[in-house]
Amino acid sequence: AATLVLAACGSGQVGQSSGGQSAPDNKNLALIPGVQAEPFYISMQCGAEAEAKKLGYTLTTQAPQQFDAALQTEKVNALGSNPPAAMLIAPTDDTAMLAPIQQVANRGTKIVQVDTSLKDSSVAVSSISSDNTQGGQLAADTLAKLVGNKPGSVLVLDTKAGTSTTAARAAGFTEQLKKYPNLKSVGVQFTDNEPEQAASKVSAALASTPDLVGIFATNLNTGEGAATGLRNAGKIGQVNLVGFDASPSEVNGLRSGEYQALIAQDPAAIGQQGVDQAVNALEHKPVTAKLTAGLHSITRADMDANAQYFYKQ
Ligand code: T6T
Predict the structure, then answer these.
(1) CB-ligand 1 contact for 51 (6 Å cutoff)
(2) From CA 34, how far away is CA 221, in angstroms rounded?
(3) Where does the protein end up (predicted)?
């Protein structure tokens, strides 16, 4: 199957690298997202491609077919024959991806983490992500506002254990929820990043927890599954659904009332800054080890004013 990801990005501006003695001969950058054909990573790819072009570099994207460490390792290993100057990667597992990434680094390729990260990030010259803990806190504040004073239970849907981003979102949410005594967490459920699993976890929660007033879905697929679970039970709009990300399908869901709020990231900025840091490292300029991209809580009432945060597909 073809794995080269072609995204519908804007054309971007062609620029020239600063050149001079500091510019490397190898101007090839690789991007390895978490999974192929997914709006968050497509938007990241667009941001990265445009920036690479502007700086006089070429960026090639190779994405696994599923959000899976073994499949992502194959993509990383495949770079071996033609090592890029720098690799931007969103590790799908905070531990299992260390060894394959380390191997690439050992051959002289600069490593930049985009979005997710390893537990031991020392292999990377720079790491760029949203403040995911803060994103979880923002989701809790948003949900609490939507629910008001009504007492009730709240469910959190996470993806896979070992995913740094969604783990931080779930933890930030759970901690912040303690500030709202009327809301009680019924815990975090893992879904393997499969919408079907998220849907069945929601069906089960609705059956076992009659006072369920809210769900926090920590990413795109968990949100899609949660909406299906609510729809199947006729509970759309009765249980508040706060999602993460702003894919076209989530944005449609916000407009139609399946979601009450979305926490949008800025994946294009993550991709752009990832390229900037990679190029800084290659051109011996100062590199920032950790950078944070913005987050925005969006409800139906203010969605049209926030259209610039919606993802590409
Ligand atoms: O939420 C994003 C990303 O930040 C996360 O690490 C994995 O899931 C997404 O790609 C959305 O599906």
Answers:
(1) no
(2) 13
(3) Cell envelope
- CA–CA gap between residue 76 and residue 116 (Å, rounded): 15
User: Complex ipTM, two decimals?
Assistant: 0.98
Pocket flag, ligand 1, residue 165 (CB < 6 Å): yes
pLDDT at 306: 96
pTM of the predicted model as reported, rounded to 2 decimal places: 0.95
User: Which are the contacts of 89, defined by CB distance < 8 A and separation ≥ 6?
Assistant: 31, 32, 76, 97, 101, 111, 112, 113, 114
Mutate to test the pocket of ligand 1, among 118, 219, 292, 296 (most ligand atoms within 8 A of CB): 219
HSE on the CB side for 198, CA within 13 Å?
Answer: 28
What is the average pLDDT across 94-122? Answer: 98
Please give the distance of CA 293 from its chain centroid, rounded to a whole number.
11
| Pairing assessment for the beta strands 110-114 and 86-89 based on DSSP bridges | parallel
> In the numeric block, which tokens belong to residue 138?
């923002």
Q: What is the rounded CA–CA span in Å between residue 259 and residue 26? A: 46
pLDDT score recorded for residue 78: 95
At 53 the three-state DSSP class reads helix
Give the chain's mean pLDDT: 94
C-beta separation of 212 from 183 below 8 A: no
The 3-class SS string of 91-116 reads: CCCCCCCHHHHHHHHHCCCEEEEECC
Verify whether ligand 1 is closer than 6 Å to residue 174 (CB atom): no
Asked if residue 219 has its Cβ within 6 Å of ligand 1, the reply is yes
Res. 9 pLDDT band, cuts 50 70 90: confident
Q: Give the three-state DSSP class for 225.
A: helix
pLDDT score at 17: 54
Q: Tell me the percentage of the chain whose pLDDT exceeds 70.
A: 94
Contact call for residues 246 and 130 (beta carbons, < 8 A):
no
Atom 5, ligand 1: residue with shortest CA distance: 165
* Tokens matching residue 180: 């709202």
